[in-house]
Structure prediction request, 431 residues.
Amino acid sequence: MCRVAFLLAVVTLIFPATEELDNGLALRPTMGWLHWERFMCNTDCDRDPDDCISERLYMRMADVMVKEGWKEAGYEYVCIDDCWPSRQRDARGRLQADPKRFPGGIEKLASYVHSKGLKLGIYADVGKNTCAGYPGSLGYYETDAQTFADWGVDLLKFDGCFMEWTLLGEGYINMSKALNKTGRSILYSCEWPLYEWPFHQPNYTAIRETCNHWRNFADVYDSWSSVKSILAWTASHQDIIVPSAGPGGWNDPDMLVIGNFGLSHDQQESQMALWTIMAAPLLMSNDLRDICPRSKELLQNRRIIDISQDPLAEQGYRTAEVDSFEVWERPLAQNRLAVAVLNKQEIGGPRGFVVGAVPGWKICDPGCNVTQILPRYKEMGVQARHSQMVLSVNPSGTALLTVTPVHADFRRLRKLHWQDLSVRQKPATVL
Ligand code: GLA
Prediction:
């Protein structure tokens, strides 16, 4: 008995209950909707009642998520971003929602969202103010964590504006502890590395221990140049950031802007395919009340979502750049592979890419069963190791495939897969 107590004490010392992120959340990339890119800081509810940041917006979005198949497809979190609070804390120092725009308060909104079988996300900031100038959480981490828990909030996006950069780590860790201390499971979405990169290389071990996902790079805009810049940053830092992704912690390249104004349909397909290869949180920022059927179909594509949520839970890499094509690959469970071929040439028509040139195609010995998912679903049959099959890819579009080895000897295949594909050890093969 005495020994058991001693052991327990040792275990408690090594793994203190409130220290680390032990919320058991985000075992697969988070899926949901987040208001920022589409609705920003529109607080003018007199002039713009339907699109302003108010409880109505989230309630309607939750309604549509249930009615229009979003929830069924896996999109679960309805997330508030900046500009929701009142400019002042209440008499007890707690954040409060703007009373005019959120007459029912966040607690009531959370119950509404929960009644739809969805979860509610909220936004706060590690520093003195939020990026849009609303009250920040500096000096109030425990109060704010407890307030969010009392309200029934399920996710916190914690921004990094108005904070001395040397104190960012401490701030993010302290908020993580405060969230754990509440006893409520609150998914913790950070921007810690984004604000540290200008000064030094962030400590991704600490970040992964603290956050469920983390933004690394600038805000996404509704444009192809923005999506491209995020892909370029990710590929050029993949050796540093990819190894830290896995169940419970993900690199966050920011929101999906599919269904808005700035991307052509091919570019929307590219964002969806590449975000999936990157095992990114799939947080849409668009107007689900008014979205074109093609964008909706793309966002709800079951085969793409299956790649996103694959049980192996590994982030993919860019594995080749050749002739203005980029090849990205993500290992999947059961020795399968997802392959995305992006045509970066923004002039001319569709161009052909020979699948046998995909670096991971090595696993297709003697052959692979190939399914094309984008630009349209097509079973491509069994393709050999040196297949000359050509994918036709539109300018700024992406072909997305899944590749399943067919083989006589399963053990031989496993060996091949892990020795030869092992993109983690040999990333960024530039042809
Ligand atoms: C920062 C974040 C954005 C958004 C805004 C809100 O720019 O990176 O995602 O939350 O602040 O002000």
Residues 36, 81-82, 130-132, 159, 191, 219 surround alpha-D-galactopyranose (CB under 6 Å). The longest helix spans residues 168-182. The chain has 15 helices and 16 strands. Residues 80 and 395 are 35 Å apart (CA to CA).
